[in-house]
Design goal:
Its EC number is 2.4.2.48. Its cofactor is Zn(2+). By secondary structure, the chain is α/β, with parallel strands linked by helices. About 40% of the residues lie in helices and about 15% in strands.
């Protein structure tokens, strides 16, 4: 593998990186969004993409090669001059057409050679995009064909062109992990997680999260990851948190042709909009009635421009969140846009221990905003580190912070983290902001932390002084931990109880 990708900042699985594209002579900051250009149906001139913030685009070399006029123009002028775009250009190989129609008139060696000859900066072999829920036997056979294509591409003279190594395996997560490990072991450069478009089209974000997490387990941390077909801004934050660096959007143009208007919370039909909920150039200068009154292609072009504006604005928001250490708060906010998106976030949290490894040990203030916050990587890390602590003979775990001479040592308790030494009271993440009215999940998480500390110190006598914790949380506290309800004591003493 070439030394082309450098990570600058991380938050959970999200990272700000620099992808060097030697043939284009540019370095692209990731995460980045590549607008898809259909050479036969251009909605917005590629030369204007930089005005939206695009540093890279993607087009289909198979479509170009299959059209006599386009093929000759690309070979004569080169891809950059043909499209009028100075940034990096990635080309697909026709694998999407293979998935749609069952066959294509090219192979890996032929299409890689063509991509090299027309000046592509990142080329793609003909991988086999196995659809979701395919049988294991079918997925294994097609994965073998993809790995043969990677071997052919690896052995070709491509000059400075980078080459994709797609990761397939359908929804069989063990196959995805193995495929990623195999791809990472090649000399290829960029690692697209393929055949996820059907999952995204069906809002199967939980399955998408499991597939990406599996692929990430098989790839090295220095592998730039492309989530093929991830073009809707509502899922950029989640995809970034999962560790994806490159996205591509055909949706900006496809949706515009159907009079659909993108937002970070979903998609609306132009006919249903009374006021544009956006301040981009299109929405600031036109009313919905004015856009509806336009004939095509003017209406389609304006909607496509808006869709690009909202997509790149969300991408900038994701980058800002990663740099601030606030990506998880953004993911939680976007998870509330759709029930299936919430499922996707919960699936991500099922892999919290995996993403804890790349999550910074200290960052901006932890905000507890929902029950899902109790499962974030920061909470998992705190619980995992509790067994490292050696405790005294008698320890008070105090939610109030008050102490007593009856104990050898006092630990503070703060849901969802649970116990921590008082010396760590000003350190991340226990400095986090939590609401006064916590949900049961926060207390249950704190109870898991208490259990971790107690299990690691079997000779210590623990007492938990708490404020009327729910029974479900108290049931998760080890039986040998003595329980003391501060609220009950306060009531018994006419409000004068000191809590201990």
């Amino acid at each position: 593998m070439r030394d082309i990708f450098e990570i600058r900042r991380q938050d959970a699985g999200g990272r700000i990186g620099e992808l060097r594209v030697p043939r284009a002579g540019v370095t692209v900051e990731t995460p980045t969004l590549m607008p898809v250009v259909n050479p036969n149906l251009i909605t917005i001139e590629p030369s204007t993409f930089t005005e939206f913030g695009a540093e890279m685009l993607i087009t289909n070399s198979y479509i170009i090669k299959s059209d006599d006029d386009l093929r000759e123009e690309a070979l004569e002028k080169g891809l950059h001059e043909m499209l009028g775009f100075d940034g990096a250009i990635m080309t697909d190989s026709g694998s999407f057409q293979l998935a749609e129609y069952g066959e294509i008139d090219t192979d890996t060696e032929d299409i890689i050679e063509f991509q090299r000859d027309i000046g592509s900066d990142i080329g793609t072999p003909v991988d086999i995009p196995t659809p979701p829920d395919a049988s294991r036997e079918s997925a294994e056979i097609q994965l073998g064909e993809t790995e043969e294509a990677l071997a052919l591409a690896e052995g070709m003279d491509v000059g400075e062109m980078l080459v994709n190594a797609p990761v397939q395996g359908s929804t069989h997560v063990d196959l995805r992990e193995a495929a990623a490990e195999h791809a990472y072991g090649t000399d290829l450069d960029v690692f697209p997680v393929g055949a996820v478009v059907p999952l995204l089209n069906d809002y199967r974000y939980a399955d998408m999260a499991d597939v990406v997490a599996a692929a990430k387990r098989g790839l090295g941390s220095d592998a730039p990851v492309h989530l093929f077909g991830a073009g809707h801004p509502m899922m950029f934050a989640l995809a970034a948190a999962l560790g994806c660096d490159l996205f591509d959007s055909a949706a900006y143009a496809i949706y515009a042709r159907d009079d659909r208007y993108m937002t970070v919370r979903g998609t609306e039909h132009l006919a249903d909009i009374d006021h544009f909920p956006c301040s981009c150039a299109v929405c600031s200068e036109h009313s919905p009635d004015e856009v509806r009154a336009l004939a095509d292609p003017a209406r389609e072009e304006l909607l496509a421009e808006h869709n690009l504006h909202v997509s790149f604005a969300e991408l900038r928001r994701v980058k800002h969140a990663i740099k601030r250490g606030r990506l998880m708060e953004l993911v939680e906010s976007r998870a509330r846009s759709h029930p299936e998106m919430l499922d996707g976030y919960r699936a991500f949290l099922d892999h919290a221990d995996q993403y804890e490894r790349s999550d910074p040990a200290s960052k901006d203030t932890f905000f507890y905003v929902s029950g899902e916050s109790a499962r974030r990587p920061e909470v998992e890390r705190h619980h995992a580190r509790l067994p490292r602590l050696d405790t005294a003979d008698e320890v008070l775990l105090s939610e109030s912070g008050a102490g007593s001479d009856d104990f050898d040592e006092i630990y503070r308790v703060k849901p969802p983290f649970g116990p921590y030494p008082t010396a760590l009271a000003t350190t991340y993440p226990v400095t986090g902001e939590v609401p006064d009215r916590l949900d049961d999940e926060a207390y249950a998480a704190a109870a898991r932390g208490i259990a971790a500390l107690a299990d690691a110190n079997p000779d210590t006598d623990f007492t938990l002084a708490h404020y009327d914790w729910p029974d479900t949380a108290l049931a998760a506290v080890p039986e040998r931990v003595e329980l003391y309800d501060i609220d009950a004591d306060r009531d018994d003493n006419g409000g004068d109880g000191d809590g201990e």
